[in-house]
Design brief:
single chain; about 60 residues; mainly alpha; about 60% helix; about 0% strand
Length: about 60
Protein backbone atom coordinates (compact mmCIF):
# COMPACT_ATOMS: atom_id res chain seq x y z
CA UNK A 1 0.00 0.00 0.00
CA UNK A 2 1.51 3.36 -0.99
CA UNK A 3 1.07 6.70 0.78
CA UNK A 4 -1.86 7.87 -1.35
CA UNK A 5 -3.89 4.73 -0.56
CA UNK A 6 -3.47 5.42 3.17
CA UNK A 7 -5.22 8.76 2.74
CA UNK A 8 -2.22 10.93 3.56
CA UNK A 9 -1.96 14.43 2.18
CA UNK A 10 1.28 14.12 0.23
CA UNK A 11 3.52 16.71 -1.39
CA UNK A 12 4.10 16.84 -5.14
CA UNK A 13 7.59 15.36 -4.80
CA UNK A 14 6.35 12.38 -2.83
CA UNK A 15 3.56 11.79 -5.34
CA UNK A 16 6.06 11.96 -8.18
CA UNK A 17 8.30 9.48 -6.41
CA UNK A 18 5.40 7.09 -5.80
CA UNK A 19 4.37 7.16 -9.44
CA UNK A 20 7.93 6.76 -10.69
CA UNK A 21 8.13 10.14 -12.40
CA UNK A 22 11.32 11.11 -10.56
CA UNK A 23 13.20 8.40 -12.40
CA UNK A 24 13.03 10.43 -15.62
CA UNK A 25 14.94 13.39 -14.21
CA UNK A 26 18.35 13.78 -15.83
CA UNK A 27 20.88 15.40 -13.54
CA UNK A 28 24.45 16.13 -14.52
CA UNK A 29 26.98 14.63 -12.16
CA UNK A 30 29.13 17.16 -10.37
CA UNK A 31 32.83 16.47 -10.66
CA UNK A 32 35.20 16.71 -7.73
CA UNK A 33 36.82 19.74 -9.35
CA UNK A 34 33.47 21.53 -9.61
CA UNK A 35 32.75 20.76 -5.96
CA UNK A 36 36.14 22.14 -4.93
CA UNK A 37 35.60 25.31 -7.01
CA UNK A 38 32.21 25.86 -5.39
CA UNK A 39 33.70 25.36 -1.92
CA UNK A 40 36.55 27.80 -2.65
CA UNK A 41 34.14 30.41 -4.04
CA UNK A 42 32.02 30.18 -0.89
CA UNK A 43 35.12 30.51 1.27
CA UNK A 44 36.23 33.57 -0.72
CA UNK A 45 32.85 35.21 -0.13
CA UNK A 46 33.16 34.58 3.62
CA UNK A 47 36.73 35.98 3.73
CA UNK A 48 35.71 39.10 1.79
CA UNK A 49 32.77 39.65 4.14
CA UNK A 50 35.00 39.22 7.19
CA UNK A 51 37.54 41.67 5.72
CA UNK A 52 34.79 44.21 5.06
CA UNK A 53 33.48 43.86 8.62
CA UNK A 54 36.95 44.29 10.10
CA UNK A 55 37.63 47.39 7.99
CA UNK A 56 34.35 48.97 9.05
CA UNK A 57 34.82 48.11 12.72
CA UNK A 58 38.15 49.99 12.68
CA UNK A 59 36.44 53.08 11.29
CA UNK A 60 33.72 52.94 13.91
CA UNK A 61 36.26 52.65 16.73
CA UNK A 62 38.01 55.86 15.58
CA UNK A 63 34.84 57.95 15.31
CA UNK A 64 34.06 60.13 18.35
CA UNK A 65 30.87 59.28 20.18
Amino acid sequence: MNRSEKGYQTKDGVKAEDTGRLLDVHVKAVSLEQMEIARLEAELVRVRMESHILKNSGRLAREPR
